[in-house]
Automatic annotation (TrEMBL):
Species per Swiss-Prot/TrEMBL record: Streptomyces himastatinicus ATCC 53653
Residues spanning the membrane: 12-33
Record bears the keyword Transmembrane helix: yes
Protein name per the record: Secreted protein
Domain of life: Bacteria
Keyword list, A-Z: Membrane, Transmembrane, Transmembrane helix
Length: 90
């Protein structure tokens, strides 16, 4: 027959097992959360870098389009002058 002392050992062993399992689960959970946070920070830095590159590219494109617009305006002026000269010659 089991006396009260044997049950105490079983309950104590179960309690110790539950405590160790809880502590290990908490440690693993926190490690995973920390790792996810680090990965998220790296991902955000990469997105920020991509966004900065996109902004720089857009600014360069805007400058280039402005230059092209100025060139087209100058060409239009020259074409208008050439048309007037040709109409005068005719």
């Amino acid at each position: 027959m089991m006396d009260g002392h044997d049950w105490t050992e079983v309950v104590g062993a179960f309690g110790l097992f539950a405590l160790v399992t809880t502590v290990l689960t908490t440690i693993i959970w926190q490690f995973a959360a920390t790792r996810r946070a680090k990965v998220q920070v790296v991902r955000e830095l990469e997105y920020r870098k991509i966004a900065e590159q996109a902004v720089a590219t857009q600014q360069q494109t805007e400058i280039r389009l402005r230059e092209i617009g100025e060139t087209l305006t100058a060409l239009k002026g020259r074409m208008d002058a050439l048309e007037r000269i040709l109409q005068t010659v005719e």
